[in-house]
Amino acid sequence: MTNFVFKQVALMPRISIIIICLCFGISAPAFAQTTNDTLVPSNKFKIKNYIIPSALIVGGIIGLESHTLKDINDQIQGEVTEHIDERLTIDDFSQYTPALSVYALNAIGVEGKHRFTERSFLLASAMVLTAGTVYLVKNNSHVLRPDGSSYHSFPSGHTATAFVGAEFLWQEYKDVSIWYGIAGYTVAAGTGIFRVYNNRHWFNDVMMGAGIGMLYTKLVYWLHPMTTQKWFKKSNHPLEAAMVPFYDGTHGGIGLNMQF
Hints:
By secondary structure, the chain is mainly alpha-helical. It is built from nine helices and two strands. The protein has helices spanning 2-34, 51-62, 67-83, 91-94, 97-107, 116-141, 157-173, 178-197, 203-227; strands at 240-247, 252-259. Strands 1-2 form a two-stranded antiparallel ribbon. A hairpin with a 4-residue loop joins strand 1 and strand 2.
């Protein structure tokens, strides 16, 4: 009984650090907006767009101490360890699929919202913010993975990356067809499921990762008109780029051909 109480108390500073990290990232855009009236973005900040990622993040944090969510985690892990012998590493690749789909669609002529350099900057910004937050939270939450391999379970980095890509795909192609975004989010959700299936993460790890990835990508796109859009003014010589797969008999990959 004493050990249980100690663990509960020990988790509280970690949760506080997690909340501080997230609040700093979320409040930075608001600070930038209010300190200079000339930096008001052209697109309004809509609270409803952030309900789902915020709910996922809150649910993930609550899962660190909630008995109900811990019971769900234990039940899922019990099913995984009892009935699944073979692990599938598809999540190592599917985490990048939604983001790469944006470039693949553009390469075949389906144009998105932004040009190559502009969307690449947006993606890189979202990825950096997400990766930085995931790293900080992982190293402060100190949650043991279900398979016992390390204490870096919370949150799921693979899931966060996948949901950055899914929201990136949605933002770029929602005006073309909502089905692109739906497909991207389906792949991202599948990535999270496979992280649990492979006994690498708890359910609330996946929730937290998904929320972080979605949140930062949405914020980057919201901030874009008042921060970086002026850096990407259209020129008479737009950047042309194409991705070409290659295989030399030993190694394979994707080559990037760029022309300025």
